[in-house]
Amino acid sequence: MKESYLYKKLRDNKVRCDLCNHRCVIEDGSLGKCCVRKNIDGTLYSLVYRKLISENVDPIEKKPLFHFLPGTLSLSIATVGCNFKCFFCQNHEISQMPCDYGRIEGRDVLPEMLVRDAINYDCKSISYTYTEPTVYFEYAYDTAKLAHEQNLKNVFVTNGFMSREALDMIKPYLDAANVDLKSYSEEFYREKVDGRLKPVLDNIKLMKEMGIWVEVTTLLIPGLNDSDEELEKIAGFLSDTGKDIPWHISAYFPRYKSTIPPTSVGRIHRAIEIGKKTGLRYVYGGNIPGNESENTYCYNCGKILVRRFGFSVLENNIKASKCYSCGALIDGVF
């Protein structure tokens, strides 16, 4: 266990966790909504510090990040736990383990060992992913700080529900984030994931202002968030925030408690069309094999810049952050 970095002690041995926008008030002996933070005698502890449940070497494209060091490897790590309760969660075995089964599993791995692994496997970054990095913030923060000392970049793959305090604290060490914007409906967030939309939107804007490279993913779920009207709202928000924000529209497949049929390829292409109509420069389709919507095209001249197949980069024609053909500046970290 490790004492939490961001919390406030209250009366009667209660505490308020300030890591995410739930801001759970936790009584002595109780857990927060994520089920991995416990109040013990008026002190809030992380129960997942140095409890690594997953460690893999992934292409950075798998996060997905298409405009951040394309073609490089990222050491991807996670502990168990999440502050959302998505009934369609793709990684529910580890994200919901503490709340569903009351178990916290993982092997003891020091932050220094994670940085060493990243260097040994020729990774250019460490990605805090698979579950929600906010719930293992202390572990992520300590690792990210050491990673920067070794010239490694840090990436959050996140639901975007962290607090302003958490973002302010991690800002010096956080280089990029892929934010899962699940819907543009407060009702969806409240009823389907036990969260709220506005903090996510605010954090996308805030990270952009902070200079953190931001890409956004939306998992398209038939009948829940795939209407033209909702897609237009998401695309409009992203376009207003920054036309350079890459938007990844991923096909959903039934997982966990969901029996909704998979997303059709047609809906993915329709969402891409809507995104491009709003003026977004880079819109991608994901989880549909062998499609050209994974490629990066120059927004100015239309030439293909990065050709991909799945998570593999087959061709990269971006030269000094510019289009090789017309010289337009291509947004990202290359």
Describe the overall structure.
- By secondary structure, the chain is of the alpha/beta class.
- The chain folds into 2 domains: 2-46, no CATH class; 51-323, TIM Barrel, CATH 3.20.20.
- Helices cover 26% and strands 25% of the residues.
- The chain has 9 helices and 21 strands.
- An 8-stranded mixed beta sheet has the order 8-9-11-12-13-14-15-16. Strands 1-6-5 form a 3-stranded antiparallel beta sheet, with no helix packed on it. The chain has a 3-stranded antiparallel beta sheet with strand order 2-3-4, with no helix packed on it.
- A hairpin with a 2-residue loop joins strand 5 and strand 6 (43-46).
- Helix 3 (111-120) packs across helix 4 and helix 8 crosses helix 9.
- The longest helix has 14 residues, at 197-210.
- It is globular.
- The model has no long low-confidence stretch (mean pLDDT 97).
Write the layout of secondary structure elements.
Layout: E1 2-3, E2 7-9, E3 15-17, E4 25-26, E5 37-40, E6 43-46, E7 51-52, E8 54-59, E9 73-78, H1 92-95, H2 97-101, E10 107-108, H3 111-120, E11 125-128, H4 137-149, E12 153-158, H5 164-170, E13 176-180, H6 186-193, H7 197-210, E14 213-220, H8 228-241, E15 247-251, H9 265-277, E16 283-286, E17 296-297, E18 304-309, E19 312-316, E20 318-319, E21 322-323
Parallel strand pairs: 9-11, 11-12, 12-13, 13-14, 14-15, 15-16
Antiparallel strand pairs: 1-6, 2-3, 3-4, 5-6, 7-10, 8-9, 17-18, 18-19, 20-21
